[in-house]
Structures are given as structure tokens and as C-alpha cells.
Amino acid sequence: MSVGIVLVSHSAKLAEGLAELAAQMAPDVRIVPAGGLEDGSIGTDYDEVVAATQRADSGDGVVLLYDLGSAQMTAELAVESLADPSAAVVADGPLVEGAIAAAVAAQAGKDRKAVAEAAAAAGVPDDLSLGEPADGGDEIELELRNDVGLHARPAALLVRALSEFDAEVSVRLGEQEADGHSVLALMSLGARQGDRIRVRAGGPQAAAALEKAKELVDGNFGE
């Protein structure tokens, strides 16, 4: 089981498209779109959001994200009406970036609080030092040979893999460096096929984390 996600939008097409995108990075997570009104027009439907929240809950709770102000109100009312309102939470964060971050966190087995925090933190720039790796840390250089480089699905695979290790990991491309535990940060590097990235890690399982990163890159992320 994993935390479920509900995408509350004024547009059914927006919610459905985003759910499809997020599902590519989190295939084991229930991501349920709740967009538009029953007649297909723009708006948010309270009953639909309640039903979506119930469908998304596999036992570990639900995180709801929304696009505009009235969607937030609808989401909050839906949560309040649940038999157990504590089973769901409305996250304050950008809808698109938040959905991706939340989906990856849920896929990694994070709890409801951590998934909501991931959504809320989405889009917030990471303040990473470009100094030397932490004590006991190390660094490797890898060449991206897969077709799409370090974008959506590969970035999500790398983040999920690294979450299993007790290590701080960052990925550097040129003068840019990103948190190895953030899909959005990794995607922002714009690393493409043929680029050489430097992966650095520190902490008790730094070596294992680097080995896993190398395995994924060398295996072209399963493409």
C-alpha cells in the first residue's frame, strides 16, 4: 500500500493529463483526477472530490492537491466530510510540480505527512553547496546514454533508488548542482543524452548509493 493522491482542478483534462504524467513516475500509487463539473464544464465538484478521495485511499491515507483558490475550498470541505478526516490532508503547493513530487514520495513509501511536505516544497529552489563532498563522501562521473537523459521517468527512478540509502546525494552538471532526492531539481538540470554528470554522496551508505546510481545510468534506466 502507499499514500494515495487526488488532483483537484477546475479542468477535467488538466487533472486527467497530470494524473497520467505522475503515474509514469509512480506506477504503484493511486493517483485520482477530480477535475471539472459533472456536465464537463469548468469548475470543481464537491461530490466528485469526495468520491475521488475515497477511491484513492488504499489504507495509508490521501494527499489532495489543487489548482486555484476555490478548488482548495472544495478539497478542504471534502476532507472534513470524510468518516475519518485525519486520513487525508490538503497540501499547499504548485499543482503540477507538487503532484510529481508527491507521487515520487508516495512511490518511495513515504507516509502521508512526508508526501504532503514533498508537494508543498515542490518548486522551492534547493540551497546546495558546491563545495567538497561531506566527510567520508565520494564522487563519480557518469555519462548519460539513454535517449531522454535525466528527465521525468529516469529522474524519478533515480530518486526512488537513492531514497533506500542513508546518504546525502547530489548530482552536478557543469556549474549546476541538484539534490539527488528531488525529481524536480534533477529535471531542472536539463541533462541530456551524451552529458556527463557528477554524482557525489556522503553518509553511512554513500558508496552503495553511488553504486546504485552507476547501475541505473549504465543500464540506461531500463530503457
From TrEMBL:
Transmembrane segments: none annotated. Residues 137-223 form the HPr domain. It catalyses: dihydroxyacetone + phosphoenolpyruvate = dihydroxyacetone phosphate + pyruvate. Pfam families: EIIA-man (PF03610), PTS-HPr (PF00381). Residues 2-128 form the PTS EIIA type-4 domain. The keyword Kinase applies. Its EC number is 2.7.1.121. The keyword Transferase applies. Keywords: Kinase, Transferase. GO terms for molecular function: phosphoenolpyruvate-glycerone phosphotransferase activity. Component of the dihydroxyacetone kinase complex, which is responsible for the phosphoenolpyruvate (PEP)-dependent phosphorylation of dihydroxyacetone. DhaM serves as the phosphoryl donor. Is phosphorylated by phosphoenolpyruvate in an EI- and HPr-dependent reaction, and a phosphorelay system on histidine residues finally leads to phosphoryl transfer to DhaL and dihydroxyacetone. Homodimer. The dihydroxyacetone kinase complex is composed of a homodimer of DhaM, a homodimer of DhaK and the subunit DhaL. This is Phosphocarrier protein HPr.
